[in-house]
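Translate structure to sequence.
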């Protein structure tokens, strides 16, 4: 199994996201619990629809300042293997919607931008997450 240690590049739609510091992809679903009137604990747990979200932190703010909240496009990252002999991997969140742009300015440090996304299934059935080995 390959291990990955570096982010080679990232883009949102056609916009390159330069100098990626880190990226996080989260899959989650909210539990919907139920219990009878006399039950102390939940006796039924169902899951709501899955939510796929991502955060990408980039060094510098120019690219982030040019983005528009609510814009939609594929969020794509290429991650490189830790070993030279490994294969790079491309991660895609299809239909990602930009939900937040956080700009951070620190004394004597380079400014950063944290971009937050939520992926939207194009047909309500297809998983917007994709991962494949890069060629």
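Result:
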């Amino acid at each position: 199994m390959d291990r990955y240690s570096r982010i080679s590049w990232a883009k949102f739609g056609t916009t390159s996201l330069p100098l990626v510091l880190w990226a996080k992809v989260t899959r989650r679903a909210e539990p919907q619990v139920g219990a009878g009137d006399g039950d102390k604990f939940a006796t039924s747990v169902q899951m709501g629809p899955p939510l796929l979200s991502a955060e990408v932190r980039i060094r510098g703010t120019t690219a982030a300042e040019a983005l528009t909240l609510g814009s939609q496009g594929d969020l794509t990252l290429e991650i490189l293997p830790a070993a030279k002999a490994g294969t790079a991997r491309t991660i895609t969140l299809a239909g990602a919607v930009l939900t937040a742009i956080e700009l951070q300015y620190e004394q004597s440090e380079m400014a950063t931008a944290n971009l937050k996304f939520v992926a939207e299934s194009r047909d309500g059935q297809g998983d917007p997450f994709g991962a494949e080995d890069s060629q």
